Amino acid sequence: MLKILTFIAMFFLITSSSFAQVAVNQAAPNFTLIDTNGQKHSLSDYKGKFVVLEWFEPDCPFIKKHYNSGNIPHLQKQYTAKGVVWLSIDSSAVGQQGNYSPQALNKWMADKGGAPTAIFIDADGKVGHLYDAQTTPSLFIINPQGNLIYQGAIDDTPTPDIEDLKTAKNYVSAALDAAMNGKPVAVTTTKSYGCSVKY
Asked: How far apart are CA 176 and CA 121, in angstroms?
């Protein structure tokens, strides 16, 4: 019985340490990834800037909604022009839906008019699990001090229908606009929606 209890305790210890959950108003966990152009990036490189982490997966209907409509490309261009660092991350595992080569992801992003600061393939899921990213899209905003100030959905309308964007409240732009103007972020945590991340 003691052996069984020890095993269970070890399982939960391993699970909890492997799948850390980030929290708003706490330091965002650092990570290092190689982008689709072969350049190394660490989150710590961007201390002093606002950073958006965006989980995406090209084959997801919800991602298609936000890219085919130009919604996310518009946000990327709007905020990177203001000095925000936008990092797009694909955590699809090898053999899973959405796992593409670096060249294919670059082409897909260019075809959609996307303009993130960098695109990453997180095929082993380490960074996705570090941030407990559950869906695509899933977004996290980090302030210049390195603290998480928003995590969750892109907006309040969890459908794949492009028409619904006309009335959706965009949580990401609201959070960035408030924080960049020295105001408190009204909504800091929401439940993300979309396709499950294909770990």
From this structure: 25
Q: In the predicted model, what is the mean pLDDT of the chain?
A: 91
Q: Are residues 146 and 27 in contact, defined by beta-carbon separation less than 8 angstroms? A: yes
Count of Cβ atoms closer than 10 Å to residue 79 Cβ: 22
CATH fit for domain 20-196, picks 3.40.30.10, 3.40.50.2300, 2.120.10.30, 3.40.630.40: 3.40.30.10
Task: Classify burial at 160, counting beta carbons within 10 Å of its beta carbon; exposed 0-12, middle 13-18, buried 19 or more.
Answer: middle
| Cα–Cα distance for residue pair 150/187, rounded to 1 Å | 7
Can you tell me which residue has the tokens 């992801």?
A: 105
The pLDDT of 3-14, averaged and rounded, is 34
pTM: 0.89
CB 70 within 8 A of CB 109: no
Chain segment 151-160, per-residue pLDDT in tens: 999 999 999 9
pLDDT digits 0-9 by tens, 93-151: 999 999 999 999 999 999 999 999 999 999 999 999 999 999 999 999 999 999 999 99
Q: Where are the domains of the chain?
A: 20-196
| CB neighbour list of residue 53: distance below 8 Å, 6 or more residues apart | 87, 89, 131, 139, 140, 141, 142
Question: What are 33's strand-pairing partners?
Answer: 41
